[in-house]
Design goal:
three-stranded antiparallel beta sheet
Length: 310
């Protein structure tokens, strides 16, 4: 009896195991056939963004120019010794040009040039653009005065040049305009153009300098102050020449230590045609003649002479 019960229970157990095994296999097979979905097609989208700049284009900014250590501003520091100052004048009624002057002056004012360091006008002021706050005013381009962004900035660089001369610093780069300007003596200007023409000087003294610039009521003034009481020597600036060519020299304590020359071009002339008609009594073969008349373009006023190519 016991043996029969054991066999019965054993058979029952095997049957249950087999049933569970079959059920598990059936469930697995059903899952594979009902839940498996076809692989989604690849939908990768390129994330390359096209910019407005063509990377294969050589821009003027790609020209190799030395980058000097950045300079900082200090409006509260103690720089009690004025070693040089220079002023030029402008027409405050020319609102767009005045705006350009003030924008550039704001970049230079309170800049500190440590002893032995270099000041670059372009690096300090930056590119003259509409987004930087510059307006359209007269600039020098291709031998004539035309409208351009940043007109007036060269008066700032020229005023700074004249002041730097009197501070007896080392002038590293200075460029003259192609046309004559009247806000500084002929031969004493310093034109600038972004990444092409710069005004650069080195503080060759033993003291840190601070540049102070102001632009108000038609007067643009640049002054250089020293942190320490230094002697820049007896500085004398002389400009000689006439017509198109001028030479500027700086002597300190009787010895010449800087010389630069300037050669200006004649302003382009414009040609106009004057139409004349004959009198009634003249033969019909001379009914109309054209006469070419050449006139000199008006000389730019001090408030219009400007920025070489900008």
């Amino acid at each position: 009896m016991k043996r029969e019960n054991f066999k019965k229970n054993l058979c029952l157990g095997l049957a249950v195991v087999l049933a569970l095994s079959f059920a598990s296999c059936a469930a697995r097979k059903e899952a594979e056939t009902t839940t498996k979905e076809p692989a989604a097609p690849k939908t990768t989208i390129s994330t390359t963004v096209t910019t407005t700049e063509d990377e294969n284009t050589t821009f003027p900014e790609s020209k190799t120019r030395k980058v000097y250590p950045g300079l900082s501003k200090d409006k509260n520091g103690d720089y009690p010794y004025k070693i040089a100052t220079y002023s030029t004048y402008y027409n405050s009624g020319d609102t767009t040009r005045t705006k350009n002057l003030k924008t550039a002056v704001g970049k230079v004012n309170n800049i500190v040039v440590p002893a032995g360091e270099v000041f670059s006008f372009n690096q300090t002021v930056g590119k003259r653009t509409v987004t930087a706050g510059y307006k359209t005013a007269k600039v020098v381009a291709d031998g004539e005065f035309v409208d351009g962004i940043g007109g007036g900035v060269c008066q700032v660089s020229s005023t700074l040049f004249e002041c730097a001369l009197r501070a007896n610093v080392d002038i590293i780069e200075r460029n003259h305009h192609t046309l004559k300007v009247s806000y500084v003596p002929l031969g004493g200007d310093a034109t600038v153009q972004w990444n092409s023409k710069d005004f650069i000087f080195k503080n060759s003294s033993s003291s840190d300098f601070r540049i102070k610039m102001s632009c108000d009521s038609g007067k643009l003034t640049c002054s250089i102050y020293a942190k320490d009481d230094i002697d820049v020597g007896k500085v004398s600036i002389n400009i000689s020449g006439s017509g198109r060519s001028y030479v500027l020299t700086r002597t300190v304590n009787g010895k010449q230590n800087y010389r630069t020359s300037s050669t200006y071009r004649e302003q382009k002339t414009t040609t106009t045609k004057k139409k004349t008609t004959t009198k009634k009594n003249e033969p019909t073969t001379k009914a109309e003649t054209t006469k070419s008349q050449t006139t000199q373009a008006p000389t730019a006023a001090p408030t219009q002479s400007e920025n070489e190519g900008e």
